[in-house]
Amino acid sequence: MTSSADQNRLYFPATERNRASIGDALSEMLPEQGAVLEVASGSGEHAVTFQRRFPGVLWQASDSDPIHCKSINAWIAHECLGDQMPPALQLDVLDQPWLIPEKISVELKVVIAINLIHIAPWSCCQSLVEKASEYLPTGGLLILYGPYRRNRSHTSMSNESFDQSLRERNPAWGVRDLEDVETLCRDVGLGNMHIVQLPANNLIIGASKAA
Predict the structure, then answer these.
(1) Which residues pair with 153 in a beta bridge?
(2) Which residue, 23, 70, 80, 131, is most buried by CB atoms nearer than 10 A?
(3) pLDDT by residue for the chain (211 residues), tens digit each?
(4) What is the pTM of this model?
(5) Domain CATH number, residue 61
């Protein structure tokens, strides 16, 4: 018999495909302890996977969509992580300010967004980077995963087709130029950019908060 909580669980196929490779990259980037704020957590499948894989950190999932927040909480319950993970935070990346629980704010070491900035207006990327710089301590890390253009060109035909499909859905969306994201980060004190190539022509990038 399926519980009402289980009925709230959403399944995103891309999450199952990429969580192992993202997790492998994160294993080289995450601190052993501290809080991680995931922005735009979607279904919550990534959040519970990484909370279980990295038990030393406190993984705070968030999303602007209340249906997604219900799914995140349902996944937390399904994985029996309620004693370890906080409930989903309803947070829009454009919120001014971000209303983050005090425990998360005090222990915050990482802000991460997976597959967000290309499925959102550029203003969301700007707000994400600016708020990450504002809330992260010195040495804290902003991590972004997704497809990128490099040297103003697509890195594959599949990424070019994906970009076209995104812009057809919403002209404000699209695969971002890595150089623009790097500039945005540098302008707010996030530097020492670390880039890892992942499967399916995706990158995971990390930028640390300067002193």
Answers:
(1) 150
(2) 131
(3) 445 567 899 998 888 889 999 999 999 999 999 999 999 999 999 999 999 999 999 999 999 999 999 999 999 999 999 999 999 999 999 999 999 999 999 999 999 999 999 999 999 999 999 999 999 999 999 999 999 999 999 999 999 999 999 999 999 999 999 999 999 999 999 999 999 999 999 999 999 999 8
(4) 0.95
(5) 3.40.50.150
Structure tokens at 20: 């192992």
Among residues 132, 89, 94, the alpha carbon closest in space to that of 113 is found at 132
Strand partners, 108: 35
- The count of structural domains within the chain is 1
Distance (Å, rounded) from C-alpha 4 to C-alpha 27?
34
Q: Domain of 127?
A: 4-209
> Would the CA dihedral through 197, 26, 37, 45 be positive or negative?
positive
* Whole-angstrom distance, CA of residue 65 vs CA of residue 74: 14
User: 111 and 37 in contact (C-beta within 8 Å)?
Assistant: yes
Tokens of 169: 């859905």
Residues 145 and 4: their CA atoms lie apart, in Å, by 32
Helix (H) or strand (E) holding 195: strand 190-198
Q: Which amino acid is at 8?
A: N
- Do 36 and 59 form a contact (C-beta atoms < 8 A)? yes
Largest CA distance in the chain: 54
Task: Tell me the one-letter amino acid at 153.
Answer: S
For the chain, state the CA radius of gyration: 16
